[in-house]
Inverse folding.
């Protein structure tokens, strides 16, 4: 079995937060909640971070991965109108939530903010951690869409 001790240590304080727990109330794809989706992305990003031949900051990587979709609403519903164009806008909302609700730093904000690249072509990932999260998210989203309906 893989060693997920470091992952658990870094993510424990985030996962225990009630706003993060709230992601269990929103559906991401099919029957997958946003919380499950984010946790899957964190696990894959962690494995990728351990596999690449360059140094990665695991704290930034895992915080960014777990909070990359921390936008806290059901994107299938229109809400107050702010959910329109979800694909283009949710990354900014999630990044701001991570800073205001959990006190995440600028590096983590950047990871979350750029995770929808290249859909948002101008928000190119600016760090190794951001690039890994961006890639892990696409792999997991594809897998969830194809196999977990
Ligand atoms: Fe996203
Ligand atoms: Fe995602």
């Amino acid at each position: 079995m893989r060693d997920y001790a470091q992952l658990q240590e870094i993510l424990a304080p985030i996962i225990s937060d009630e706003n993060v727990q709230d992601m269990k109330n929103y559906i991401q794809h099919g029957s997958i909640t946003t919380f499950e989706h984010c946790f899957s992305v964190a696990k894959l990003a962690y494995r990728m971070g351990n596999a690449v031949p360059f140094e990665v900051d695991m704290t930034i990587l895992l915080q960014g991965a777990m909070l990359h979709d921390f936008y806290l609403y059901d994107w299938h519903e229109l809400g107050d109108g702010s959910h329109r164009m979800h694909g283009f806008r949710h990354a900014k909302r999630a990044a701001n939530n991570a800073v205001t609700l959990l006190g995440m730093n600028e590096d983590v904000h950047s990871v979350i903010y750029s995770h929808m690249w290249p859909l948002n072509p101008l928000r190119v990932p600016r760090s190794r951690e951001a690039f890994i999260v961006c890639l892990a998210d696409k792999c997991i989203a594809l897998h969830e869409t194809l196999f977990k309906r």
